[in-house]
Amino acid sequence: MTPEFFTISMLNGVSYGLLLFMLSSGLTLIFSMMGVLNFAHTSFYMLGAYFAYTLSGIVGFWPALLLCPVLVGVLGALFERYCLRRVHKYGHVPELLVTFGLSYLILEVVQLIWGRGTVPYALPTALQGPLFTLYGTQFPKSRSFVMLVAMLMLVAVWLLLTRTRIGLVIQAALKNPDMVEALGHNVPRVFMMVFGGGCALAGLAGVLGGNTYVTEPAMAASVGSIIFVVVVVGGMGSLAGAFVASLLIGVLQTFAVALDWSLAGLFASMGQTVNESTFGWPVLRLTLSQVAPILPYLFLVLILIFRPKGLLGTRGD
């Protein structure tokens, strides 16, 4: 493992992990404040990308970067107000089912409007090309911008929740909603704002992830499972846990896909004879890059076995 490989892989892993954090942070906020596990969260991420694709062709990318999260957040707030709130009193299962149904509804609407193929949502001119060259390898401006926005978003959310009046009301409504309502605050409206804000964060991730990677109807499903892995590994409801888990999984996957290490190679380097006749050869010959897609789920299983609440989680339900 050369220094240049390690450095570039680490940068790519951190940038991917921070994009995962932008996605998982909204889901974590919604769950921590409302106890709702939103199965349609990555669908709002997809909406952010498609809205940005459409609006960037009309008003430009930079205005779209501001407008699209707001639009997605408004849609999320309306969904909470007129749909999710009606089934909330029936428990978690109806909430899961209605958000699960919403994800399929959004997918069909996206395919009806924008089609089933990839749309040409390209990077703006200012984000094209490399930001710097390290060890002969160029690091793109787009990934650097994703990292910058993710860090700014983390600081903004932390300041909102810990240093503002609305943040104190939100935290109080989480612990004792009846007392907060008795003090004159509209708790259902607070929850609607939280749900809308979480969806807006997903929309922001979609604006950046859509042109950094690819914008297509399958983009929600491609990151849906990994986001729930991040939330569970970090700890249900823990924003700090989601941040740590996102970076761990991003770096883990980025390094794994670039390494061709295998158990057969390890045994061979120790002087052991390993070939097709060796017991377990189909497993021994698998390289790390081949099993990279399942590593986050293996990590999830281990976390659930040895630390069910996650790395930094405290919530028990």
SSE blueprint and pairings:
Elements lengths: L2 H32 L6 H16 L4 H28 L3 H23 L15 E5 L2 E4 H23 L1 H11 L1 H6 L4 H26 L6 H16 L4 H19 L5 H7 L11 H4 L3 H4 L3 H12 L11
Antiparallel strand pairs: 1-2
Shape: globular
Q: Can you give the helix content as a percent range?
A: over 70%
Number of strand elements: 2
Which sheet architecture does the biggest sheet show? 2 strands, antiparallel
Structural class: mainly alpha
Helix count, DSSP H or I runs of 4 or more residues: 14
- Strand line-up of the largest beta sheet: 1-2
- Order of H and E elements: HHHHEEHHHHHHHHHH
Strand content: under 5%
**How far apart lie the N and C ends?**
42 Å
| Nearest-integer average pLDDT | 86
Which oligomeric form is depicted? single chain
Spans of at least 5 consecutive residues with low confidence: none
- Gyration radius, in Å: 21 Å
Give a short summary of the structure.
It is built from 14 helices and 2 strands.
Provide an overview of this structure:
This protein is mainly alpha-helical and 317 residues long. Helix content is 72%, strand content 3%. Strands 1-2 form a two-stranded antiparallel sheet. A hairpin with a 2-residue loop joins strand 1 and strand 2 (137-140). The longest helix has 32 residues, at 3-34. The two termini are 42 Å apart. The model has no long low-confidence stretch (mean pLDDT 86).
